[in-house]
Amino acid sequence: MTPRKGRLAVGLIGLGRLGRVYARDLAGRIPETRLVAVADPLGTVAEEVAAEFDVPKHYSDPLAMIDDSAVEALVIVSPTHTHRELVIAAAGRGKPAFCEKPPALSLEEVAAMKQAVSSSGVFFQMGFMRRFDPGYAAAKREIDAGRIGTPLVFKSTSRDPFRPSLEYANPNSSGGMLIDMGIHDFDLARWFMGDVKAISAIGATIAYPELESVGDIDNAVASLVFASGKLGVIDLTRSGIYGYDISTEILGLEGTIRIGYLRETAITVLKKNNVSHDTVPYFMERFREAYTLQLQNFAQNVLQERAAPITIDDGLEALRLGVAATRAQQTGKTVTVAEVTGAGV
Amino acid sequence: MTPRKGRLAVGLIGLGRLGRVYARDLAGRIPETRLVAVADPLGTVAEEVAAEFDVPKHYSDPLAMIDDSAVEALVIVSPTHTHRELVIAAAGRGKPAFCEKPPALSLEEVAAMKQAVSSSGVFFQMGFMRRFDPGYAAAKREIDAGRIGTPLVFKSTSRDPFRPSLEYANPNSSGGMLIDMGIHDFDLARWFMGDVKAISAIGATIAYPELESVGDIDNAVASLVFASGKLGVIDLTRSGIYGYDISTEILGLEGTIRIGYLRETAITVLKKNNVSHDTVPYFMERFREAYTLQLQNFAQNVLQERAAPITIDDGLEALRLGVAATRAQQTGKTVTVAEVTGAGV
Amino acid sequence: MTPRKGRLAVGLIGLGRLGRVYARDLAGRIPETRLVAVADPLGTVAEEVAAEFDVPKHYSDPLAMIDDSAVEALVIVSPTHTHRELVIAAAGRGKPAFCEKPPALSLEEVAAMKQAVSSSGVFFQMGFMRRFDPGYAAAKREIDAGRIGTPLVFKSTSRDPFRPSLEYANPNSSGGMLIDMGIHDFDLARWFMGDVKAISAIGATIAYPELESVGDIDNAVASLVFASGKLGVIDLTRSGIYGYDISTEILGLEGTIRIGYLRETAITVLKKNNVSHDTVPYFMERFREAYTLQLQNFAQNVLQERAAPITIDDGLEALRLGVAATRAQQTGKTVTVAEVTGAGV
Amino acid sequence: MTPRKGRLAVGLIGLGRLGRVYARDLAGRIPETRLVAVADPLGTVAEEVAAEFDVPKHYSDPLAMIDDSAVEALVIVSPTHTHRELVIAAAGRGKPAFCEKPPALSLEEVAAMKQAVSSSGVFFQMGFMRRFDPGYAAAKREIDAGRIGTPLVFKSTSRDPFRPSLEYANPNSSGGMLIDMGIHDFDLARWFMGDVKAISAIGATIAYPELESVGDIDNAVASLVFASGKLGVIDLTRSGIYGYDISTEILGLEGTIRIGYLRETAITVLKKNNVSHDTVPYFMERFREAYTLQLQNFAQNVLQERAAPITIDDGLEALRLGVAATRAQQTGKTVTVAEVTGAGV
User: Chain D contact for C307, CB < 8 A?
Assistant: First the structure.
């Protein structure tokens, strides 16, 4: 494929909440794409979404859609446990693919995906949408331009406004809080600061005791020592009752940059002795634009034959940090990242 | 026409900067619309935009497009002096129309438009996008719900970050600053507080002396007394060099509400003795969502046969306030709104 | 008197709420002063305050205290109607004096004070404490240093958090809202922008109908045209129910400066969908430091024989603007400042 | 001593920078105190300060001043290594004492001080001024009142705006960064959350390599597990180049409270694409009021025979946490607080 004009014919796999948002983006909001097919094991959902967005084809079998010659590229937003099979299938058919984070829940699975991607030589882009958020992107530009001097300390906070369902939280499917929530912060840590050498972590089930029944925690703090000797700290909570709050700071030798905001609408209410405003409800309100920009970037990369800005290795390394943090939290010991390995990775 | 499912087949007139944004919205971002035709006197522009957004038809003559039976409804965003003819034509063909503000530059022109709209009985919606901004809309809801008690004082500030071209600023085409910029604030004043009884105003050409050559001012303050006896004040500037800044406050008996923000991206940079962030570049960054929501609302209203939330009368009355303010500023005298009349209005 | 070391022996007249704060400042917080005597018509109050702050002497007759040779300088914070007699007496005895704003309620009274001060040649300093607030002082420095370029528009807002007593509000003793509250903003307008040429104003009794019984208003807006052609606007309210809110902005050709804050303590509370903080209760919390700095400046000026930074003319001109605004509000007409005159001023 | 009226006759030991601020507070700003004597090994400094604040007596030998019968109570703000001897001497003479943090640099020294204080039964108050900062005090009240529900996570950040001298930073005299800077945060951790069970910490010398010559670090992160199972995290830096930044958050089950601010004066400057304000220069600007309130509280406690709100045990336990954190940082292992012991404590 040579760089070309025109729109990329995309097939979308997975039509849950995020999948529907992706459908709208791919169908109407991204000039570089056409949504030519959707797939979901629930065939009625696929039919419904196809109707809503004027998508010509719909499948209940994602593999069949991958085989469809009208589909030039794939966007995979199905449940994590399906990623391995789908990514390998796409690579096998030589079709460029975008895969939502996390790549998988075990290093072994990611090793297999990585093997398929690299042996096929086909384009693959890992999804970490925070890198496309205008705030995070602006911070990266400022730091790369030397605005705050050498980065010394990375701090990041992720707070969900309510408890997920016990089914969702179950570490067997979510990977546990330090992977499920933390993988975004681990990816940011690597993006802003480079490789991590060692992690220690504490965690507890103190907000929602019922999470103990599935073996998950609801609050955690992880400390990072980077390969460069710099420091980092990440704190996570599932009980940020006031709203969805994602904030990151990079402290440099000549200044500091903070990313994050806490307000949804532009109004402030002043009552007796009180000034107040609202908060950001959840991730879709905070990162709506980032999701769109990320898919647009994927399409542009494929069309213009640019390298992927986020690779399967980025997915692998962020997962490795999540696994290290989980192990550190469970054992109470510092875990070096180098000791967290899987088959071949 | 009875309420119906499906998308509204829209024809768009005027393909300048805002027109292209409308084209994208109507073509891809609003589920209730299809963009079936575009028109612009510059036929090549019409052709180009049609190609970009897959629009089946394009016209260099807007009146021909209005006649096209494939066009169910019209969105008019062409220069102000064309509004009268186009609105009257749309009304004559019985086609629902949305018209960007200001309705026209003279009360007489609006009188003619109003006559055409009301005698035809066809749907007509006036464009004042601030009412659809989530911040302004939330403020209106809060006030209507009694959150701040009885509103007492309306304050509004509009600041453009740079001088328009002298051609644009010329009052013969722009109406002058108090109409061109102020009409949004005058509409908000009426929306939040009701009818205005009298206006006084001061203005000066103190930032850009060259504006005197076309007879416009660059800074102004208008004081309003509402029919209810409540007070208002609006200040306008074309020299808000730091960024685009639109803010409004409604002070009530039990509190106050402020709408507005000054930040574009979610980063804060802290350097030696200094904390800083960026600003909002211009109206498109500030009100992008409002424009989309407004057109969506128009389509929904037509499809569901709902009444227009903003009528030709709203356009007429906001213009009347602008004319009154201009007259007050030029004469140095308080002008009662009742004395500002045109043929039949 | 030549510049000298040591502390200035101050006599304080007026021991109401602000007077007691001044007593504490003069007795213990200002290294350049000693409080050697206090006077108040209520002799028991004078005795009580003297005991609290270890003041050697106390008087029920202020004139007797002015005669006391142990008193080197006077601080006058008694009711406004007493200012004329006391200032004239201090000037007659050749004693430096500080007088709290407003100088008086009529231009004629101020004319007499001015005559006494200038013919005696004795030091006199007018009290307008906002000029000593670190925020306002920093803004003045920045503007004088050219930080925002040429100032174009002055905007100022003063809001009291509750209605004063009807006795206090009575224009016969307060001068009416535009003088009583506005005199601070008028002084700031002159300080930042220079002389005012004309004022128009609107006002209404819309928050507290009972104020009509004494003839005062509770909300007002005044528009100013400066001698330089620049513009200004001041809005005042007695119903800023949420807290004491004083804010000022100077918009310049290259930027804008805003002074003001709305928070008393450094805590922010985030609850479900809500971020809030407290507000500034009243003027003493907002301007506590400004009051102290102002008296310290007075003492330093006297000790070091420096000229007064705020003169009786500043008091006179601010009052003249207040009178002009009141007249404009009552007549509905623009009032030129030049037409507001009293005997000899 | 029974509760009494009148002022407490205080002797002040240590006249460095903070000592002079205390001298001014005790001499003039706190109604409950008189400063009757000052002591400093540099006799000329003592003489100078005595002259400046009208203090009747001055000493070069603090022990001689402790013996002076005119001195009712002592405020000790001399270098940390002198605390043990002075506190024991004060206790021996039965004189109430206030001692600035840290109590000492070793648990053994504090054990001796504790023994002297408890066996004498005399009043002793430990200095941790943050507890008297209006922001921290308001946060404590809100939390105790249940405003945010059960506290779950404690987060605290302390940032100094520049490197201390190498002499000062030397752990032999400062205790090292985790004690020197961290002791305030450790005290806050205990105040808000109760006892700590275990600490892990990372630290590095990454901002000022020259600190390695004296064996100190310049950035650190400590993770805390409280006895209740709740979590905490503290990050410290000596390279907060932008200003002095102290902020703390307590995340509760029903909300969160943040304490801290970043602005010194009330002005905001808006320039092209940029909104900025200043920062807090250093601790004296941030906590000036807290220092005064703390000494006032000490005097009131002595005069009214109230128990000390902060005891030698609070000093001991905060130091113990600092020692634990230092040990954890140096060994890379989690340290249980119970294992950090000294002779008898």
Answer: no
CA-wise closest residue to C21 among C275, C343, C293:
C293
Q: What is the band of B3 on the pLDDT scale with cuts at 50, 70, 90?
A: low
Cβ atoms < 10 Å from Cβ of A263:
17
For strands C245-252 and D97-100, give the pairing. unpaired
The pTM of the full predicted model, rounded to 2 decimals, is 0.94
Predicted ipTM?
0.94
Average pLDDT of the residues in B53-70: 97
Q: Which residues of chain C fall short of a pLDDT of 70?
A: 1-5
Q: Please report, in angstroms and rounded to a whole number, the separation of the first and last CA atoms in chain B.
A: 30
CA distance D115 to D122: 11
Residue A333 — left, alpha, or beta (φ > 0 → left; ψ -120 to 50 → alpha)? beta
Pairs of CB atoms within 8 A across A/D: 99
Count CB pairs under 8 A between chains A and B: 86
- The pLDDT of residue D3 is 60
The answer to whether C270 and A279 are in contact (CB under 8 A) is: yes
The tens digit of pLDDT for each residue in B187-210 reads 999 999 999 999 999 999 999 999
Structure tokens given for B287: 């009100």
Task: Indicate yes or no: CB of B255 within 8 angstroms of CB of A269.
Answer: yes
Q: Which residues contact D134 (CB under 8 A, 6 or more apart)?
A: C264, C265, C266, D289, D290, D293
Q: Provide the chain A residues 43-72 that lie in CB contact (below 8 A) with chain B.
A: 52
Q: Which two tokens stand for residue D88?
A: 């024991």
Closest CA to A152 of D157, D238, D262, D184: D238
C254 touches chain B (CB under 8 A): yes
Q: Which of B29, B16, B20 is nearest to B292 (CA)?
A: B29
Burial B233-255 (b: 16+ CB within 10 A, else e): bbbbbbbbbbbbbbbbbbbbeeb
Question: Taking CB atoms and an 8 Å cutoff, what residues of chain C touch D258?
Answer: 267-270
Query: What confidence tens digit (pLDDT) does each residue in D140-190 have?
Result: 999 999 999 999 999 999 999 999 999 999 999 999 999 999 999 999 999
Q: Does A254 touch chain B (CB under 8 A)?
A: yes
- What are the φ and ψ backbone dihedral angles of C196, each rounded to 5 degrees? -105, 140
Q: Answer yes or no: is pLDDT of B1 > 60.
A: no
Q: How many CB atoms lie within 10 A of CB D67?
A: 15
Q: Nearest 5 degrees, angle CA D170-CA D171-CA D177?
A: 100
- The number of beta carbons lying within 10 Å of the beta carbon of residue D44 is 10
Measured distance CA(B45)–CA(B50) in Å, rounded: 8
Determine whether the interchain pair C138/D267 forms a contact, defined as Cβ–Cβ distance below 8 Å: yes
| DSSP run (H or E) holding A64 | helix A62-67
Closest by CA position to D147, among listed A244, A220, C278, A267? C278
- Report phi then psi at B190, rounded to 5: -65, -40
> Tokens representing B24?
């994208």
Convert the pLDDT of each residue in A249-296 to its tens digit: 999 999 999 999 999 999 999 999 999 999 999 999 999 999 999 999
**Whether D267 and C256 lie within 8 Å, measured CB to CB:** no
Beta strands in D211-337 (DSSP E): 219-226, 231-237, 245-252, 255-259, 267-271, 274-277, 335-336
Contact residues, chain C, for D138 at CB < 8 Å: 265, 267, 278
pLDDT reported for residue C219: 98
Residue D85 neighbours by CB distance under 10 Å: 15
Where b means 16+ CB within 10 Å and e means fewer, D248-260 reads bbbbbeebbbbbb
Enumerate residues 6+ apart whose C-beta is below 8 A from B98. B73, B74, B75, B76, B124, B125, B127, B295, B298
CA distance A309 to A125: 7
Distance CA D152, CA D156 (A): 13
